Each structure stands twice: as C-alpha cells, then as structure tokens.
Amino acid sequence: MPSEENVPQRYDAIVIGGGHNGLISGAYLAKGGLRTLVLERREILGGATLTQEIFPGFRFSVVSYVVSLLRPEIIRDLQLPRHGLHILPLDGTFTPTDGDHLWRTDDHAHTMRELRRWSVSDAEAYEEYGQLMAQMARFIKPILAMTPTDPRRPDPRDAASLGALVKDFGGLSRRQQLTFIQLMTMSAAEFLDRWFETAPLKGTMSASGIIGTYLGVHSPGTAYVLLHHYMGEIDGAFRAWGIPKGGTGGVAAAIASAARAVGTEIRTEAPVAEIMTRDGRATGVVLESGEEIEADHVLASTDAKVTFLDLLPSGTLTPDFEAEVRRFRFRGSSGKVNLALDGLPSFTSLPDAGEHLRGAMSFSPSLDYMEQAYDDAKAGRFSRRPYIDTIIPTLVDPTMAPPGKHVMSCFVQYAPYKLTEGTWDDQKEAFGDAVVDVIAERAPNIRDLILHRQVVTPLDMERDIGLTEGNIFQGELSLEQLFFNRPVPGWSRYKTPVENLWLSGSSAHPGGGIMGANGRLAALKVLEAKRNGGAA
Amino acid sequence: MTAQRWDAIVIGGGHNGLICATYLAKAGLSTLLLEQRDTVGGAVGTSEIAPAARVPTLAHTVGRLTASVARELNLSGNGLRLVQPAALVTSIGSDAGPVTLWADPDRSAAELAAVSAGDGAAWVSFDAEVRALASTLWRLLLMTPPDTREANPDVLVSGLRFGWRYRRLEARLAREFTRMLPMSIADYLEDRLESDALRAMLATRGIRYTAMGPHMAGTSAVMLTDSAGNAGGAAGETVYARGGPGALAAALANAAREAGVEIRTGAEVVAIRDDHEAVNGVALADGEEIEAGTIVSGLDPRTTLQDLIDPETLGPELGWEVDNLRDRGVTAKVNLALSELPSFEGLDGEDGAMRLRGRIVIAPSMRYLDQAADASKYGRISEAPWLEATIPSLVDPLLVDGAAAGGVKHVMSVLVQTAPYALRDGDWDHEREPLGDLVVKTLETAAPGISKQVVARQVLTPVDLERDFGLAGGHPLHLEPGFDQWFAWRPLLGYARHRMPVEGLYLCGSGSHPGGGVTGLPGRNAARAVLADRKAAR
Question: Which of A505, B102, B181, B228 lies in the 20 to 30 Å Cα band around A145?
Fold first, then answer.
C-alpha cells in the first residue's frame, strides 16, 4: 500500500512500543545520529508506566507506582530533570500488624527507636545489614550495566568487564563474598531469618524479593532482589524510592520530551501489525492501517512473545527458537487496585493522618503471611489475604486528585494470570473486595472513603497494555530467565535471529522495573553495529 | 592401656567415615575409626524389626555408590553384591493408574505411550538428555571445589575437565545445562512432559530428603545430582545391596579392617582437642583422651564445629555461620514387617510383583506434592504425605529368611517426606506413632488391607535421626542441598576443600561437597586432602 504522505517513509531505526524502554531506545538512537521513529499502539505513551484519569479529577498510575531503579546514567544522558522529571521522595514504610505496627523512615534515629521497640538485637543487626547491603549493591551494580556473555560462546569483548568483576569479587572480604553467594542463591525468607526476628520487618523486607514473580518468599532466588532497595541510595542524588510528579506517566512524559528534543519522531495510535523481513533480515514494519514504514533497524520493546510469535511472520524463525520463546515464562502474578478516596485512611494502631501515610503502607505482617499468599497462587487462585503495597501519591503530589480528595494506589500480589477456576473477568471484583478487606482490617474507615475503585487484573494488563500474561516485567525474573538466558539462551545480547531486529524491552537483560537499562543497552548495540558495518 | 598416638582419627563410622579411613590406612597412616553406636554404617544399615525380618534402616537403595570407589576398595571382594531390578520405579495412586519406568528406556516409552502419547514419544530422548546433563554435572561433583583465598592447581585440572565436558555437549544441551540448574523441578518437567502423573513421580527426585517443594528453584539441580554418576537416568537409580544396606556397611568395614583401620564402636567422641592452632586429639565420653595429628569428622558440620570444637577456637564469626547452617530435615522413615505381599490396586500377580521390585512412589500429582510441602513449611505434618517405598524382600528373599515362623513374609521400607524436624505444635515423642499410623493409612489407599498385614513397625522421626544417628536437625543429607550450601561454599565459604578452620581437622561427610546420597565421594576426597597436606608438609 502506498504511503499516505509523499515523504519517503524510511528511517534508520524504528522502535516498536512507547513504554519507558522504547522511548529511551528512541532517544539514544536519535542522539547517536539515527533518524528514529517510535511507534505506540495506544493514544498515550508510557506503556506500563502510564498515568490516566480514570475517574474525573483522579489520576491513577494504572500499573506501576514507584520509581526506584531508573539508571542514573540515563537520567544524566537524557537530561531528564530538564524535561520535567521530578521524583518526589517517598518517606518510610509503615507495616500495620494485629494491633501494632512497624514504621521505618529515613530518619535513622526514629527507625532505630521503632526497631528497638520490637527487638533490640534487630535494631543492631539492621545497621550492620544496611551497611553490608550497600557494599553488596556497589559490587553488583556494574552487572546490571553489562551485556551478558554467553557461556557457550564467550565473547572476548566481555572478557575485560568479566575479569574486572572476578577481580572485584576477589577483593571482597570473606563475609562479603559469602553474602554475595547467599544473595544469589537463597530465598528472601531464609536470608532474612539469618539476620532478624521481628515478623513485620522480615515480612515487609521479603516482599521486594517476590514482586512480579510467581515465586514465594521461601523460594531460592528471591534474596537477590532485596538488594534493589539499596541500589538507589548509593547514587546519592537519587532516592531509593520515589513517586514521579504527575504519576509514573511523568517519567514517560519526560523521556518522550527528551527524545523529541534530540529529534526522535513519536507516533501514537500507530499499532504495528507485522515486522517486515526480507532474506532473514528486518526491513521495517507494517502498521495495522496497512501503512508500511521501512527502516534499517527495528527495535522491539514489546515482550518476547509478542515480538517473536505475534509480530514476525510465521516461518521467519526456526522451530527450535520458537519453542524456546514458548518456554519463556510470563505467569503474571500481580494486580493493581486504584482507589479514589474521600479522605485519608485511619489505621487502628496509629489513628488519623500523619507522616506514616506519606510513605509506603505495606500489608506484610510476617513471612508466613507472605508465603500463605503464595500458596493460594500456586493453587491457581488469587490470594485470599494478599500482600498489598500501597501509597497515597496525593499526599506528596496533590495534583493527582481534586482538593481534599486522595488517590490510593495498591499493588497486590498474588493474582495469578492462570486461574484454576473461573475467569478474571468474573473474579475481578471479588479480588478488589479481598484487597479492601485486608486494608479494612487495619484501617476500618477505608470502606466509607472509597468513591471509585479501579481493579487491574493480569488479564487487563495483557489486553490493555500488551503485557503477555500480565507480567509486569515482560517475563518472570527467575534465575533461569536472567543474564545470558534472557529471553532465550544464547540470545541475550539484544540481538535476535532476525538480522537488524533487536529486543529492547524488559524481556531482555537485565529485566523489568523502571530501570531503562534494556532500552539504553539495546540502542547502544544498534549504534555499535551501525558503526561497524553500516546498515547491516 | 598404653597411650598410642595415631596418625589419623576418623570420627563417625558412616559410609563416608569408613571410606575415608580406608583410603588413609591404605596410604600407610595408622588410622583409628571411632563410632558412637554399636555398629558401623550410620544411615546405611539394616534393622531387624521382627525376628529374622531385616529391613533397610534409613537409605534403601545404594545405586549412587561411585563405581571407582567400589573398585578401589574391592567391595565385591569384601562381600558386596548389588542387584538392579528391571523396574526402577512405579508410581501408584494417580489418575493414570500404576505407571512403571524400567531400566530399559524403550520399555518405559512403550508403557508411557498408554498414559500420554506425547510422553511416550518423548521419553527416550528426554532420558538421554537427563543422562547427558547429569554426566556433565558429574565432572563438577567429582572435583574438589576451589578455595577462594588461594590458587588450587588441582582445580585448574578438574575445572578444565569440566569445561571440556561442557564444551562437548551439543549447543542445545549446553544451554539447557545452565538454564535448568536453577529451575524448579516442576517447571523443568512441565517444559518436557505432559502427564501430571509422570511429572509428579519424577519431581519427587528433586525434593527427596530436602525441605523443598517441587516449585522451589534449585530442585532441578537436586534431581540432576541424583542422576549423576549412576545408571538410573531420568527414572533414577534403584540398586539394592543383597542383605540390605547393612551389607554395604559390612563390606566397607571389611575393606577398612583389611587396610589396617582399627574400628572401635561404642566410642562416643565428646570433644576435639586443640591448642588453638591445630587439633591434637579427641576426648571420649568415658573420659579417655586419644591423640592424633589429623582428625577427620564424618559427622555433620554443626555437630563437628559447634559441639566438638572449642568455640573460642572457632571464633564468633564462623560460630554465627555454623549456627545459621540450614540443616533441618523433613524426612522420616517407617519400616514395616508384613504378613503378605500387599495387594496394590492394578498390580497383581507376577507382573505386579515385577513392578513392585522398583521404588514405589505415592505422589499422585504435582498439587499433592505442593500441598505436602506446604504443610511442612509451616511446621506441620502433611495429612497426605508423599512416600517412597521399597519391598526389598521381593528382590532379596534372604532378608526374611526364617521370619515366616513369626508370620513375616515381606518387609517394606517407607521414606516419608514432609515430617518437619521442628513441629510447630506438639513434639515428636508424641507424634511418632501417629506418623506411623498416617503412613499405613496412606498406604492403605493404594494397597487396601495393608494395615491388617503389618506384623511389626519401626518409626524413625527426624528427632530420632538426630538422637540415634547423630544427624543434627535430623537432616539425612547433613545440610539442605540448596545452592546456598553448595560446591565451594559447602559447608562454609572457603572451607569446601574438606579442611576445617582448625589445622589438622577435616570434614568427610555429606556436609561437604558434593553432598549427601551414598556416593562415597566426600569420604574419598577428604582422604585425598589429608594425604596431599601430609605430602606438602614433608
């Protein structure tokens, strides 16, 4: 079909998907001098980071809710603060329990007093733990920025960075080496059990190990994610957890603005139907409208399944490769409940408004509670008493709701995509009720405050945002799906079996979370290929 | 009694202790082996639970014994006879009815075709894949792991061997190797096989003796380790020692004595003596002190380092690490003397008896395994435990020779998983017999009438494993086989080369690499470490 415009529809690079990774790829490519087009299926940018006004006056960060891991080099390279990125610090975590609570904040003395109330030895261990974790984070951070090497065909270009890593490991103390091994191999629960005895402390800390996975806190491999909490702190300028002004969509807006500033073209409502190929090489895309756009390089920030099985014409890939993609596990396990509130919740153990509402409120009273939530998921049903991580963004960013009103954002786990009985559309409201029930146990006035409720199930995330099986990380972050195995063993370097087609979303290394590393590294790979071999 | 100074004392006469002592004595060291119980063998033993009716006390198969160890110690010359039945394992109680996997993969494939056409077609290549991956892992298990603090030339050699073996794998399998190891056994099998009954039956191999459920990461590696270095393949080894596992212990003891090891039973070591620099002897419960420059412990790491070593010598840092070792078991054992061969549904006559010669697994579905593991996670005994049983008297009638007078025709050995050492409510002294009842009740669902056939019963709880066999936490593998207690950091980082934090003290049991299961490798490799150090000191 001829193009609608007379200008030749030809780009150096096309990026499929206007989520944060796609936009970051687009920005880096344009910065590298390539004529770049980003195509977004929906009318708004942001993908899973979008913010929408679902009910009049109330703006919800529909899927994601906090920013923690956005790589500092990206913030720097793209000058995001200048494009409106403003992260409002999220202070503290409040964990209500039966008749009591554990409230940790950035005020060290306060947190120590609070921990001592629960356990003197935990207060001591907490400091030592924090220091050790920060050291570990400093050691591990470079791994996130590395292109993973394939053990089967080690790339000599990776030898230097791998060598440095081995040398760094050798330079760690025995205690640090041991901790590193344990973080990589243990479950969050067992790891925390070595350090602490306070149930709500362990329950709440363990939660970061299971977010977005179909694993329980007792499953090995979940300890590693505990470190992510300490990654942000060492950059100094960037807080560990924060809420972007204007919702998580504010991140996408800033990146889009930065991308446009360097010349990236961005088109919304431009769903891609197919990736065009010729002789095993990507040559452009066909939109659902029939429009064809040619490009030397195609970067897909869509997940591995959508990219390889839906967008590529069948027969492009070998059956072996397709089989590997089918094996890649998504298994979305989380849902989101967004509440529009008439006022602020009041917790039984610490009534009325207060600073504790300005941080995260975590419904994770113990490791057993967390694990039992997972037991339900294993049986193919949503957690009857789920783990919930809530924030009230309107307390730090009042623009998100009408005056006096509030928005409460509840991240909920577990909500397994595959239900043993019934469908998500039938169970959606029951799931929402379960969430409200758990909150109401600790903050009984919540029921009367709810003006509107939006329940986002894994099925909704798949249908609306294009996340296969509703996995927020575009593929489970389990050990066997990380590093050189992500998304397909042997194809972890953003390259795909189709020449000039690159994977730049969270399905690629190092995985999900609003990090942006994937989008950046993929773009750098393309620029490198371009330098080395022209269009090929 | 003249005070004699020994070159080496081995504490604990389990299979690894016996093997280690034998290698030391063969190399010319005067070696004394001290065993607390009145027989050697440890977890490898045979119990007489009714007059003339003998049953495997704990472990019931011995197929993981490393062939080179058996050869070097001339175990066949010392009376060991091994028997492998045609049937390796039969699963009972699933929707699919009884399913048997045979030593001959083609025969298994033919049988599986009736359960699932896809699995029937896939079996032979799946079995070959497991064998290829396991033989690669085997190179890793054979090696003495590196010490992170110094260069180890032997690791270079063994590392290259492993690398060479890995490179020889075809590309797809090489990728599968690194991908599979951290996976859960449930996910791995879901990728490979269709039938839930078959998956559950095989998944037991990833969680047997462990405190994990089939959906926990790392359980694939447990299964692969179980397949490494033996002929079992994907179905798993089923090899009996004629006369029961005690016959293996007896053969090992013969080999030890023949090599010149002095074995003393009933000799409980209560302390390892040291001068804060190096060990110099042991103290026995009766007050006797025995000197030696080298002490090798076949006991678990916690008992060795926490109970026997002076805490001052160990220091607070290592003391804390030892305290945090994960060694709480969930395995119990129920041994039965039976008046008849139990009649399992669908397993009658000659054909049925043939199938019952393999391991008998009651783990009807993945969900069943999950639920059983969930209960033990919270310190409860699952009301529906999964079981692995053997009826060794079918293969080895001598086990019940002369027992007919007491009304016993067969013996049955049942491993019960999901019996947590630390019960949240109650204690094992009160739960022991209820556990026996629960196991018989569970068997009754698969073999109606079995409860009336039970003539005698022996129940060993995790607490019994600790008290009677000296296994801290009742863990049959000494330490949980997780990746956090693996390879160069089993039992502790920097102490995986059998050398413990005190000079002259070595560990030769399952708590060291490559871990539990009756392979004999920890014992042999520890002896090598001792001998290498003596050579270097000269």
Answer: B181
Domain span holding position B186: 125-235
- Under an 8 A CB cutoff, do A182 and B370 touch? no
* Pick from A197-201, A346-350, A385-389, A510-514: least confident: A510-514
- Residues B276 and B260 placed together within one structural domain of the fold: yes
Q: What is the ipTM of this complex?
A: 0.90
Express each pLDDT in A32-41 by its tens digit: 999 999 999 9
CB contact under 8 A, A178 and B321: yes
Summarised one tens digit per residue, pLDDT across range A280-330 is 999 999 999 999 999 999 999 999 999 999 999 989 999 989 999 999 999
Q: Which of B235, B269, B295 is the last residue of a domain?
A: B235
User: Is B61 domain-assigned?
Assistant: no
Encoded amino acid at A268, one letter: T
CA end-to-end distance (rounded Å), chain A: 26
Indicate yes or no: CB of A185 within 8 angstroms of CB of B486.
Answer: yes
Q: List the single residue in B with minimal CA-CA distance to A150.
A: B175
Contact assignment for A175 to B317 by CB distance below 8 Å: yes
Q: Per the CB < 8 Å rule, is B217 touching A489?
A: no
B214 and B167 in one domain? yes
Three-state SS at A14: strand
CA distance A30 to chain B (A): 35
Beta bridge partners of B294: B8
Which of B181, B370, B483 lies at the smallest CB-CB distance from A378?
Answer: B370
DSSP letter assigned to residue B319: H
Judge whether residue A234 has pLDDT over 80. Answer: no
Same structural domain for residues B222 and B261? no
pTM of the model: 0.93
Residues of chain A with Cβ-Cβ distance to B185 below 8 Å are none
Asked if the Cβ–Cβ distance from A174 to B148 is below 8 Å, we say yes
pLDDT at B3: 67
In a domain, B81, yes or no: no
Mean pLDDT of A417-437: 97
* Cα–Cα distance, A293 to A11 (Å, whole number): 8
User: Structural domain boundaries of chain A?
Assistant: 10-87+245-304+490-533, 125-237
A174 touches chain B (CB under 8 A): yes
Task: Pick out chain B residues at pLDDT < 50.
Answer: 1
Is a pLDDT exceeding 80 seen at residue A118?
A: yes
Pure H helices in B300-400: 301-302, 311-314, 316-323, 349-355, 366-377, 392-395
Q: Is A464 on the interface with B (CB under 8 A)?
A: no
CA gap A462, A452 in Å, rounded = 23
**Domain A10-87+245-304+490-533 coded CATH 3.50.50.60:** yes
Indicate the number of domains in chain B: 3
Q: How far apart are CA A523 and CA A509, in angstroms?
A: 13
| Chain A residues lying within 8 Å of B370, measured CB to CB | 378-379
Contact check, Cβ <8 Å, B191/A177: no
